[in-house]
Amino acid sequence: MELELRFFATFREAAGGKTVNAEFADGSTVGDVLRELESEYEGMESRLIVDGDLAPQINVLKNGREVLHLDGLDTPMADGDRLSVFPPVAGGT
Known about the structure:
This protein is an alpha+beta fold. It is 18% helix and 28% strand. The protein has a single domain, classed as Ubiquitin-like (UB roll), CATH 3.10.20. The protein has helices at residues 10-15, 30-40; strands at 2-7, 19-23, 49-50, 53-54, 59-62, 65-66, 82-86. The protein has a 5-stranded mixed beta sheet.
């Protein structure tokens, strides 16, 4: 299946662009996709999944919905889905 992957801030730098279309095995979950991204992109290694769960303070959205409000890493993906990955953000006054 083909997925549209969107990256923001430091993850965009690691992926080499804002949007990447990539093929994944049918039946892949969010966790499967994130593990593959960690192994493919050096700047994402150990930054997406920590101790078997979504890394703290990152946001991952499937088609605009936060995966933590779905099935987390077990959220199933389907052909044509969009996965957006945001690194931790800090700042403000």
